[in-house]
Amino acid sequence: MTRINRLAYLLLFFVIPFNSSAQNTVMSKAVTPRMRVIIDNDFSGDPDGLFALTHLLLSPSVEIRGIIGSHLKVGDGFDHSATQADNAAKKATELLTLMKMAGKIPVVAGSNTGMQNDTTAIKSAGVDLIIKEASRTDTNLPLYVICGAGLTEIASAALTDSKIASKLTLVWIGGPEYADLALPPPNYSSPEYNLNIDINAARAVFNHTQLKLWQIPRNGYRQALLPYSELLTKVKPHGEIGKYLTTTLENLMGRLQQYHLNIGETYILGDSPLVLLTALQSSFEADPSSSEYTLKPCPNINAQGGYDYNAGGRNIRVYGRLDINLMFNDFFAKLELMDK
User: Fold this and answer.
1) Cβ-based neighbour number of residue 184 at 10 Å
2) CATH entry, 32-222+269-337, from 3.90.245.10, 2.60.40.420, 3.40.50.1110, 3.40.50.300
3) pTM score above 0.90
4) What is the residue extent of each domain of the chain?
5) pLDDT tens track for 197-243
6) Cβ-based neighbour number of residue 276 at 10 Å
7) For residues 212 and 164, what is the distance between their CA atoms, to the nearest angstrom?
């Protein structure tokens, strides 16, 4: 144990009394926000976004400054409507209400459509929220915009006000594998799902902005496998939110079976690494130190949604191996603490 770790341990031991029957209270006193977060996700689509949002709402080290409901690809099987972003915002509000947090965090809808090209921004309440928060001068807490779907809002925000590029870190779940780092899975889709939601927005972020980018491509987020057994034993028993998340996922599993899709006994909670790389950073010299990344020149995204090598691209982090044990164990523990 290093000298600074010993000091931290002594402070925690003597200054913050431990009470096993009130761990939630102890945790809230011991941990205060050290970063700001805006979460942008397609909550009316794949339910993995709702799991990630729940996890973030239970994480005292992050100050959630806004929630943006974003659109899916036109005609997506999860939501066929023309109001996907509005529906996503409603789902986020539904979850906040269930957790008795309604009205405490701004929830807005992004654009219901993607960008028309890779240089013209779209206006939305989500874009305004990002620009306003990134432009603040009254706080030193770093800002992370974490996206688990398309990139319409952050791309439009950066195109509207280029100055915000230096004022935030974008963490994005999406993009295909890099050929020098990983192989695609069998029967893979091309373009990759999240990138394909708005290829123009991805091209804007990669090709035309200087946003600081941490990317978790498909080979990364596919590691976030939740066994159905743990859904039943470690999520479902914990209050209304545990039942809500379990029912949402079980309903989807039932619909998939109707289409003769046998997904086995795991589900990819691919948006949960957004929590791992923010709320669960290391204590000292803060960083997602238990996960591994490669620094790469930011490629250009071509019109087909593939990578084109760009020797002059800014360095971006591309995450490979993720600490899935830390991520899920923390989630399960926080759900359990709600019952204390």
Assistant:
1) 15
2) 3.90.245.10
3) yes
4) 32-222+269-337
5) 999 999 999 999 999 999 999 999 999 999 999 999 999 999 999 99
6) 26
7) 10
